[in-house]
Amino acid sequence: MNLTDTALFRQQAYINGQWVGADTGGTLAVDNPATGVLIGTVPNMGAAETRRAIEAAGAAFPLWAAKTAKERSIILTRWAELIVQNVDDLAVLMTSEQGKPLAEARGEILSGAAYIQWFAEEGRRVYGDVIPQPRGGQRLLVVKQPVGVCGAITPWNFPSSMIARKAGAALAVGCTLVVKPSDLTPFSALALAELAERAGLPAGVLNIVIGDAAPIGDELSFNPIVKKITFTGSTAVGKLLLSKAAQTVKKVSMELGGNAPFIVFDDADLDAAVAGAILSKFRNAGQTCVCANRVFVQEGIYEAFAAKFTAATQGLKVGNGLDTGTTTGPLIDDRALAKVERMVAEATEKGARVLTGGTKHALGGRFYTPTVLADVTGEMSVVRDEIFGPVAPLVRFKDEADVIRLANDTDYGLAAYFYARDLGRVWRVAEALEYGMVAVNEGAIATEVAPFGGIKQSGMGREGSKYGVDDYIQLKFVTFGGI
Ligand code: NAD
């Protein structure tokens, strides 16, 4: 890996301001999904190291919470600036461990920095209330206090920004944090910790543990010092963590899986809809929680959309994300590739037509050819489940009522997209979609200034915006009598 600042490539965990290995000395290998070549190793930690990280975060909490919001804001702002200054190295690191094209890696890193910067500012606006007293001689206040030590568990598909979103909000309001990143992509997380240290974050405020997910997750879930679990990942693991966090009644935020509908109505701007669908579907090789999973196209525009969308899909360039011009990198691991192959095989057996792709890519390894499937129906798994790969299933629909029913027929409720120009239809559909986020005539949805999150089995809680701090705050009501 070619980094200007090689100190950003950390191969140890970060506990209480120290770079440390596992108690057993055990390590985990991390490879480059584009080449299968080993990048480096990280400690294979378990419950004992996690407990130490939690205790460090517990000891650091009173001091960090006692700082003024402005003092915390200054450190977080410096952290965001350092991330921006090091974006080139951080992008190489991310592409090497995760596979996404360099331009997308840069975009993710800058987005993470923007969340931290946003929360550095928002942390200074955590106001309480004065409530008009119901009786004489009283004063009633509501104060907002940090929840305490938080445990954050994050996925591999956005290895930097998923941590930045959580850490920005948590640290800005005075919480301390133990983060467990995915062991598939730990280096982006460790580089963030290195920059946080350089920014002046005190020891123990941010800790990173890496290793065996179950014992680390259990320690975070059951340890009474931890007051909140914030998780981004699959719905299955989210449910597990919810049940475990219940044992000590922890506060929880869950950013879980999605099954986003992407709807193209007859009155849509066809070229804009094609561009939006390409962006939404194929970004990160289709491995995003908010990516279009099912593309519903109204019958009057179906053939025209399918032709243009297929041509645009054929224009994507599959390859190593470090190579210039690559738009579509590899899938994260062999399991992900096998899942995509299985889903496409099932769809074609049930009658779906391959308009382009439909096979592993000629490059071999973990590369899959960007694929468009036509004549897809509701009983196929490409429509029912998260594909998490570069496969776009096209489903034909008749009218508005028909597509609202189809789009909402899922346990997920994260993001939805639609293209239409009729004003009445735009309002009706935006209101009828049972999703936490709806994009109208846009293919991208995340920004630090707006609340990101899902409903139904896509989770609870919001990241970003003025609402993003609420998940790391508890309310205290104080009443004064005898006045
Ligand atoms: P995953 O649930 O397999 O893993 C997420 C994290 O949980 C990883 O760090 C993993 O090591 C850890 N983990 C796994 N088993 C655990 C256990 N028993 N106890 C504690 N931790 C455990 O998900 P993934 O494959 O890394 O990520 C893809 C999923 O994440 C997709 O479903 C995607 O939709 C979702 N996601 C959601 C959002 C969102 O904001 N809603 C964002 C990105 C990804």
Q: Which spans of ≥5 residues are poorly predicted at pLDDT below 50? A: none
Oligomer: single chain
The total tally of domains equals 2
CA radius of gyration is 23 Å
Q: What is the general shape?
A: globular
Give the strand content. Answer: 15-25%
Strand order of the largest sheet: 14-15-16-13-12-18-19
- The total count of strands amounts to 22
CATH architecture title of the largest domain: 3-Layer(aba) Sandwich
Through-space gap between termini: 67 Å
- Main structural class: alpha/beta
Write out the distinct hetero groups bound to the structure.
nicotinamide-adenine-dinucleotide
CATH superfamily of the largest domain: Aldehyde Dehydrogenase, Chain A, domain 1
Task: Work out the helix count.
Answer: 14
CATH top level class name of the largest domain: Alpha Beta
Provide the residue-averaged pLDDT: 98
